[in-house]
């Protein structure tokens, strides 16, 4: 496994992390993991393959508890990242964000308890609370660093202006945002800023929530309660039009002897040295396939072919529904 550093002062992590969301929440994605033992086995396999960055959040159902279980006796082998800020479950209509200093502290204590650890290596604000100055939220997170409860600070889905302001209060190690072949917005302003400030980008949903891997041919291929059925890119006409991108990706991957998922991950890793993708999977076989992508270095010509297949803005449909779109770029 290759390694990358999270920001100027952040920890060294495996070039690919493991997203633990879909194994922790029953039903958010159609998942092959159905209990703690299977979740722990999957996380252990990831660690055995050299993955050190484990990504979870307080709203990912059982995920924090399961990650904590997997880390029993192996705590020093992982960089443990979790998130706080959402009040209300994934998909809830009345979902809100709380970044107030009091909430920061309470949320951290609750996560430490669920994880069964005394230290979180990387603690993210999951969405920016626009009613609390970011200086106050990050100031409270900086207090947690001083107290030894967390090691490093990250933000998820902030605007570039928020990154600048937050970074002045305390050095940020990582910004987490959706970044993949069908979500290339970070290339406009965010990535240049992160390069300037020496902050890493942790790329979530690097496989386009599974779509780019080419397993889904129609919305009905997703379980009846799968959250993605409500995502604009997975609906009706949009789904059908987005399949063209996948078809082209599959053709190129086949020519090169890779899978489309590997191509999508290798594209992120080859294009940037400060990007760490965190694909999620509930299958040990697909985990192994994804980990192998860390060994692939694409040529300039391969990158150019991918650019042609998936130029910026290629996806049809926004990456969240209207309500959730209001919470990004905060
Ligand atoms: N900060 C945020 O707001 C935020 C939002 C979303 C996600 N995240 C984080 O990012 C992580 C990853 O994102 P994600 O799970 O949304 O999306 P993703 O990694 O793009 O895709 C996950 C989906 O792809 C499938 N998959 C994985 N590897 C595959 C392969 N090799 N071939 C075919 N299918 C494959 C998985 O299905 P199987 O399980 O069947 O393999 C799963 O349905 C999450 O676990 C979470 O930690 C953060």
Protein structure class: alpha/beta
Taking pLDDT < 50 over at least 5 consecutive residues as the criterion, the unreliable ranges are none
- Separation of the first and last Cα atoms: 34 Å
**How many strands?**
12
Content of β-strand:
5-15%
CATH architecture: Alpha-Beta Barrel
Query: Which fold name fills CATH's third level, the topology?
Result: TIM Barrel
CATH class identity: Alpha Beta
Task: Provide the residue-averaged pLDDT.
Answer: 95
Description:
- The chain has helices spanning 21-24, 36-48, 63-71, 101-115, 134-146, 160-169, 190-197, 236-256, 260-271, 284-292, 300-309, 322-325, and strands spanning 3-5, 12-14, 18-19, 53-55, 79-84, 86-87, 96-97, 120-125, 150-156, 172-178, 200-204, 275-277.
- By secondary structure, it is α/β, with parallel strands linked by helices.
- It is globular and about 55 Å long.
- 49% of the residues are buried.
- The model has no long low-confidence stretch (mean pLDDT 95).
- NADP nicotinamide-adenine-dinucleotide phosphate is lined by residues 19-22, 29, 31-32, 55, 126, 156, 176, 204-210, 213, 215, 261, 278-283, 286, 289-290.
